[in-house]
Amino acid sequence: MSKKNIIDFNGISMSPLIKEGNKIIVDIRSSTFSIGDIIIVMDKGHELICHRVISKSPLVTKGDRSLIDDQTQSIVGVVTHIQKGQLFIEANSISLIKYIQVFLSQKNRLNTQGRRLFLVLSILLSLIEIKIAKKGLRNHTL
């Protein structure tokens, strides 16, 4: 059985997909996730971080706009939806965009010269994901 919590998002590391002031719906009883999913982790400084999984073994998370990986300590929950006003976006649907985001994050980690290009592409993909969600999920409720 899942337990969902609504959390106000702060920060820019997942922008434009998740912006400051958006709400994220988190299943705190779930620890089942895939590469590319967005999860909540606690870092070594005991801060909560909402980032994308780019590796499961070892667990590595990273913001879509971040240049460095997180030093994660534990999994808090899995983000199921992103609320942008009246629009709800399914956070971890199986999509080509999610896998391209992971690919760009991995390339961004390894290639310091192409970082700006990878970040710009990642931002463009997030904007496309939002546009698709607006067409398909208008007036969707949980």
| Major sheet attributes | 7 strands, antiparallel
Give the helix level as a range of percent. Answer: 25-40%
For the record, the CATH architecture stands as Ribbon
How many domains? 1
Distance between the termini: 16 Å
List the helices and strands and how they pair.
Blueprint: E1 4-8, E2 23-27, E3 38-43, E4 48-56, E5 59-62, E6 72-84, E7 87-90, H1 96-110, H2 115-136
Antiparallel strand pairs: 1-2, 2-6, 3-4, 3-6, 4-5, 6-7
Helix pairs in contact: 1-2
Describe this structure in words.
- This protein has two helices and seven strands, in the order E-E-E-E-E-E-E-H-H.
- The chain is of the alpha+beta class.
- It has one domain (4-136): Umud Fragment, subunit A (Ribbon).
- Strands 1, 2, 3, 4, 5, 6 and 7 form a seven-stranded antiparallel beta sheet that branches.
- The two termini are 16 Å apart.
- Mean pLDDT is 81; it is low at 137-142.
- The chain is globular.
Please name the defining characteristics of this protein.
142 residues, alpha+beta, 2 helices, 26% helix
What does this entry show, briefly?
The protein has a single domain (4-136), classed as Umud Fragment, subunit A, CATH 2.10.109.10. Helices cover 26% and strands 32% of the residues.
